[in-house]
Amino acid sequence: MSTRFVLIQPSHAGNVGAAARALKVMGFDDLVLVKPRWDDVLARDETIERASGAGDVLGKARAVDTLDEALEGMTHVCATVMTARDFGPPTATPREHLGPLAAGGAQRVAFLFGSERYGMRNEDVYRCHAALRIPVSPDYGSLNLAAAIQVIAYEWRMALGGFDAPPPASPAAADAAAVAGMLRHWEQALVEVGFLDPAAPKKLMPRLQQLFNRAQPTPEEIHILRGVAKAMSEAARKAKP
């Protein structure tokens, strides 16, 4: 399975280096930063020192401006949260979710980690298929970003069967960027047919996001759904006097 670790707005260079080290130890090397605090964070001295020999992971890592860019090609997205949310994807421990995920077949999986200062925004969590909560002491639940990445990387490696697992088959599900693009297309069409009030959208689009996350549509199905949205828009325009 293809695996990517995404850090959203990381604010400490040392954590980026420590994240690279955590990934290399567990055999992963796809690290993407979304709007890091420092433009040159991947080359800063503190980053390189904390990477402690994982310079190849830093060399391959990249910084992007949007979460859409970071999730390009990914088909299953996991948020990391400190507490369960009242709304959004189901919350589970890493071991509860990752074992069945690995056993279910080929996926391109992304793990999202929020800013050290603010955590993950609700709108980013809503895009995910699952929210992972690492069990911690109720008396002290503050987990460093790099430590959280190490725990998730370890649990995912173990779920994949350690370092002796056979390579997976090619994935079939559409990637997260394709689903996001389709949802934007549907949002526009739903406004045009009068089903969605942009002034009071409530949680319609996040609920549709969760529906399609569960459905895991293929690229062909995404094409069909975009065709439906296009037809709705065209019908609405023709109906206007």
Can you describe this structure?
- It catalyses: uridine(32) in tRNA + S-adenosyl-L-methionine = 2'-O-methyluridine(32) in tRNA + S-adenosyl-L-homocysteine + H(+); cytidine(32) in tRNA + S-adenosyl-L-methionine = 2'-O-methylcytidine(32) in tRNA + S-adenosyl-L-homocysteine + H(+).
- The protein has 241 residues and is an alpha/beta fold.
- The protein folds into two domains: 2-159, SPOUT methyltransferase, trefoil knot domain (Alpha/beta knot, 3-Layer(aba) Sandwich), CATH 3.40.1280; 176-239, Helicase, Ruva Protein, domain 3 (Orthogonal Bundle).
- It is 46% helix and 12% strand.
- It has helices at residues 13-25, 45-51, 55-60, 67-70, 94-103, 122-126, 145-159, 176-192, 204-215, 219-239; strands at residues 2-8, 31-34, 62-64, 76-80, 91-92, 108-113, 130-132.
- The protein has a seven-stranded parallel beta sheet.
- The longest helix is centred in the last third of the chain and has 21 residues, at 219-239.
- The mean pLDDT is 88.
Q: What's the layout of helices and strands?
A:
Elements: E1 2-8, H1 13-25, E2 31-34, H2 45-51, H3 55-60, E3 62-64, H4 67-70, E4 76-80, E5 91-92, H5 94-103, E6 108-113, H6 122-126, E7 130-132, H7 145-159, H8 176-192, H9 204-215, H10 219-239
Helix pairs in contact: 1-2, 1-7, 5-7, 8-9, 8-10
